[in-house]
UniProtKB/TrEMBL annotation:
Coiled-coil spans in chain: none
Pfam family for this entry, one: TsaD
Gene3D superfamilies from the UniProt entry: 3.30.420.40
Keyword Metal-binding on entry: yes
TM region positions: none
PANTHER family according to UniProt: TRNA N6-ADENOSINE THREONYLCARBAMOYLTRANSFERASE, TRNA N6-ADENOSINE THREONYLCARBAMOYLTRANSFERASE, MITOCHONDRIAL
Chain positions recorded as substrate binding sites: 133-137, 166, 179, 183, 272
Keyword annotations from UniProtKB, A to Z: Acyltransferase, Cytoplasm, Hydrolase, Iron, Metal-binding, Transferase, tRNA processing
Domain Gcp-like per the UniProt entry, residue ranges: 23-308
Protein name: tRNA N6-adenosine threonylcarbamoyltransferase
Length: 336
């Protein structure tokens, strides 16, 4: 089964061809990061315009790289939400237009289900499993008893991990998005500031990053006021150590409560080197029988292959959308 998949929820225009939900034939990603950097974040109007300009080229390139035609596709899939409404609409409209003109079934995918099922493109998933979702807008522990059951067993009560990274990055004067740069700086520094590990020892699976973010910003501002030099590497390392301790700690707590076969990492922050190492070490020590799947960097950030992987599961279940499908900017990640 071949699926042509679209992703345009934020600032990546991406189209992929995925076979049987587990094999990437092509996964073209056109990033607009450079156009947004001087504004310090994604500007919705600029994002929509870029998607419009890029999408036809990206579709052509995805089909060419896969060496397939639209006629050979069994379905067209697209991110329905959540995301920026204007950005989502470009992908949804393109997918609907192709599905209509070529008479193909249409599938709507939740962006976060895509991030999780990206792992299926690396190796077969064994259930039950837990996914640690860490992205720009989400921080969640998700329990899956099978490939179409998503149970949120823990989540952030305020900021998402990626959001905290980006805000802290901005405070340090790093270009948007700051996550990957803080990760690099952290490797050169040490945890000298010992920032708070919020909720780490509370008996629940929830997270909170806004206190950490405030502690970080206040500490930097106090130093600036005293005209003391800012040791960026130590600030980055201290911030990252606090984030990783909490993410790893809560994930281990989740594994105590829910016996599973696999632990998956999902979302942009899954690219974080400190987190990858932290989870690997903790798992080897505490749950050596649980298999950790770490997606390659290309499948951590937004991409259409992950949407194709999730769409294959929906195809299997006969979950198709009609021509009345619309962008769902506030699409909640519901349990089902
Ligand atoms: P969502 O998926 O929740 O809708 P999104 O699509 O904007 O949000 P992603 O594209 O999955 O988020 O991830 C982007 C986030 O990942 C950004 O906040 C970015 O800073 C962060 N990120 C990317 N690489 C790293 C890294 N190495 N370390 C920490 N954060 C990172
Ligand atoms: Mg992005
Ligand atoms: Fe995302």
């Amino acid at each position: 089964r071949l699926i042509l998949a679209f992703e345009s929820s934020c600032d990546e225009t991406s189209v992929a061809v995925v076979r049987n939900g587990n094999e990437i034939l092509s996964n073209v990603v056109s990033s607009q990061i450079k156009s947004h950097q001087r504004f310090g974040g994604v500007v919705p109007e600029i994002a929509s315009r870029h998607h419009v300009e890029q999408i036809t080229y990206v579709i052509e390139q995805a089909l060419t790289e896969a060496d397939k035609t639209i006629e050979e596709m069994d379905a067209i899939a697209v991110t329905e939400g959540p995301g920026l409404v204007g950005a989502l609409l470009i992908g949804v409209s393109a997918a609907k237009a192709l599905a209509f003109t070529h008479d193909k079934p249409l599938i709507g995918v939740h962006h976060i289900e895509g991030h999780i099922l990206a792992n299926q493109l690396i190796e077969p998933l064994n259930y039950p499993l837990i996914a640690l979702v860490v992205s720009g807008g989400h921080t969640e522990l998700v329990y899956m008893k099978n490939n179409h059951s998503f149970e949120i067993i823990g989540e952030t009560r305020d900021d998402a991990a990626g959001e905290a990274y980006d805000k802290v990055g901005r405070t340090m004067g790093l270009t948007y998005p700051g996550g990957a740069k803080i990760d690099q700086l952290a490797a050169e520094g040490e945890d000298t500031y010992n920032f708070p590990r919020a909720m780490l020892h509370e008996d629940n699976l929830d997270f909170s990053f806004s206190g950490l973010k405030s502690a970080f910003i206040n500490t930097i501002h106090n130093k600036e006021q005293r005209n003391e030099p800012i040791d960026k590497a130590n600030f980055a390392a201290s911030f990252q150590a606090a984030v990783v301790d909490v993410l790893v700690g809560k994930t281990m707590r989740a594994l105590e409560k829910y016996p599973v076969k696999q632990l998956l990492m999902a979302g942009g922050v899954a690219a974080n080197q400190g987190l990858r190492t932290g989870l690997t070490v903790a798992l080897t020590e505490r749950f050596p029988d649980v298999k950790l799947i770490i997606p390659p960097l290309s499948l951590c950030g937004d991409n259409a292959a992950m949407i194709g992987a999730a769409a294959d599961m929906l195809f299997e279940q006969g979950e198709f959308r009609g021509m009345d499908m619309n962008a769902r900017p506030g699409f909640m990640f519901e349990q089902h």
